[in-house]
Specification:
3 helices, alpha+beta
Length: about 190
């Protein structure tokens, strides 16, 4: 028996639920650490699928049910409570999450660890970390966003051909120097086949 406050993983110090812990040599371990140290699984960082199609959360490696699943890095399902920044552990909103090598990061930590502030191809950030629309320069929130030229978020209403103002479907638009065009205007101005 363990005191509730003493029940932490010997390896990673994570608080443990008595029903989900593993014991080895009278020491408590979370399931991922136990597998890593005693079972020899060397691919613990990868999402797993088992017979029956059950999915495992990449962060805690426990089964993810449809009720608690949220899409995380790479479109893999995570527990909502596990979707936190790997660096600062801040809870993440899907719209404000960045990813690197299958891990989730808040925008601030992602910039700090992987750069990007000086990269002109990335969306420009304004106060509060919000992205601004390249067409109108106003903040783009996740409800209003659609991918535009270069994968940068635009307002849905701003996603129009620069030349004829026709509303554009992001999958069918053409682009040139960061601007969006319909196929016929793009062909007329810049040449090339449809």
């Amino acid at each position: 028996d363990w005191h509730k406050e003493c029940l932490t993983c010997k390896s990673c110090s994570k608080k443990l639920d008595p029903a989900l812990m593993e014991e080895q040599d009278n020491e408590a371990y979370c399931k991922p650490c136990h597998r890593k140290h005693f079972v020899g699984a060397d691919d613990d960082d990868k999402p797993k699928v088992v017979i029956g199609g059950s999915k495992f959360c990449p962060r805690c490696t426990l089964v993810v049910t449809w009720k608690e699943a949220v899409p995380g890095p790479g479109g893999v399902e995570w527990h909502k409570d596990c979707l936190t920044c790997k660096s600062c552990t801040k809870k993440l909103d899907l719209a404000l999450m960045e990813e690197n090598e299958g891990e989730a990061y808040c925008k601030s930590c992602h910039r700090k660890h992987f750069g990007g502030a000086e990269d002109d191809d990335k969306p420009k950030l304004v106060i509060g970390g919000a992205k601004s629309c390249p067409r109108c320069s106003l903040v783009v929130n996740w409800k209003d966003a659609t991918p535009g030229p270069g994968g940068v978020d635009w307002h849905k209403d701003c996603m129009t051909c620069k030349t004829c103002s026709k509303k554009l479907d992001p999958a069918l638009m053409e682009e040139n120097e960061g601007e969006a065009y319909c196929k016929s205007c793009h062909r007329r101005q810049f040449g090339g086949a449809e």
